[in-house]
Amino acid sequence: MRYANYMSEVSGIAVAADRRQLAAELRAVCMRVSRRTRFAKEALVPPHQASVLGKLTDNVLTPRELADIECVSAPSMTRTVGCLVDKGLVRREADPSDGRQVRLFITDEGRTTIARVRAQRDEWMLERLSALSEQECAVLEQAQEILGRVVAA
């Protein structure tokens, strides 16, 4: 672990370089883990559709709100939502206060699908964790808590 040098260096320049290296390595490994869990060969729905289902699990949103949350264009989100509607995973409903707006709701089948997607992803991670020692799992638990704070900041 290159970051261990951080503790022994006194120079601010060396410290900054070590932190920059840690930042790059953490970003890269987090991206690899995300990709590996999201792009499984046996995925029930593509990752972008799973992400939308996840957002709709506890929220009623408009296509525009979803596009903003997902950082995609409105036309792209319209296509994604259309696919989910065609599969019966999402339903559209006119906004009662503004008939021009469409609200999106996850269906029961959509809830089942996102639960299965999440279970597949968790299973992938559990398989990898089962190969680790208790000490390594404890370190990962601490890292998870710290990364959670970093992301929330």
TrEMBL record:
Source species, domain of life: Bacteria
Sequence ranges assigned to domain HTH marR-type in this UniProt record: 19-152
SMART domains listed in its UniProt record: HTH_MARR
InterPro entries referenced in this protein's UniProt entry, alphabetically: HTH-type_Bedaq_tolerance, HTH_MarR-typ, Tscrpt_reg_MarR-type_CS, WH-like_DNA-bd_sf, WH_DNA-bd_sf
Pfam families with a match to the protein in the record: MarR_2
Sorted UniProt keywords: DNA-binding, Transcription, Transcription regulation
GO molecular function, one term: DNA binding
PANTHER family: CONSERVED PROTEIN (PTHR39515), HTH-TYPE TRANSCRIPTIONAL REGULATOR RV0880 (PTHR39515:SF2)
Protein name listed in UniProt: DNA-binding transcriptional regulator, MarR family
Organism: Branchiibius hedensis
Lineage: Bacteria, Bacillati, Actinomycetota, Actinomycetes, Micrococcales
